[in-house]
From TrEMBL:
<protein>
    <submittedName>
        <fullName>Phage virion morphogenesis protein</fullName>
    </submittedName>
</protein>
<dbReference type="Pfam" id="PF05069">
    <property type="entry name" value="Phage_tail_S"/>
</dbReference>
<dbReference type="InterPro" id="IPR006522">
    <property type="entry name" value="Phage_virion_morphogenesis"/>
</dbReference>
Length: 156
């Protein structure tokens, strides 16, 4: 004798739907966009996603930028580092990247971590610390998004 419990069958179908590539890709798309927005906020606030203010521009740099008609904002010379973030996602991962270079100089990495060779102070904009930990607010928002999507799907 077998008994089919319709609610459990329905729940099982919803759980499989949560595992579907379409739903996971959509989730990773949103996580990528949240990450990209956190990075852009760092540029607007001129501080790391962890809240540390960036070091001011040197007087020499300020004078140069003014003379060249460039933005007076920190890390806003060509605008590429601020605006050229790419979000690529699959059903299993998301990548947020910016490969902007200037004369073969990967200036994103130099500004994120600083460079003694080029006398550039670190002005972190990525929401990941040196140990690989995600910034707390972004991590919390990602958790909320995952819980919300999962709950929403289960309650359909």
């Amino acid at each position: 004798m077998s008994v089919i419990i319709k609610e459990l069958t329905s729940l099982e179908a919803r759980l499989k739907n949560i595992e579907s590539n379409t739903l996971k890709k959509s989730l990773f798309d949103d996580i990528g966009n949240m990450t990209s927005n956190t990075i852009k906020d760092a540029f607007v606030d001129e501080s790391s996603p962890f809240g540390d203010k960036w070091q001011e521009l040197s007087n020499k740099t300020k004078e140069y930028k003014k003379k060249k008609g460039k933005s007076s904002k920190i890390l806003r010379d060509s605008g590429n580092l601020y605006s050229k973030w790419e979000v690529r996602s699959t059903a299993n991962s998301v990548t947020v990247s910016n490969n902007s270079q200037n004369n073969d100089f990967a200036y994103g990495l130099s500004h994120q971590y600083g460079s003694n060779k080029r006398n550039i102070p670190a002005r972190p904009f990525l929401p990941v610390d040196k140990s690989g930990n995600l910034e707390k607010k972004l991590k919390s928002n990602i958790k909320k998004l995952i819980i919300s999507r999962t709950t929403k799907e289960l309650n359909r």
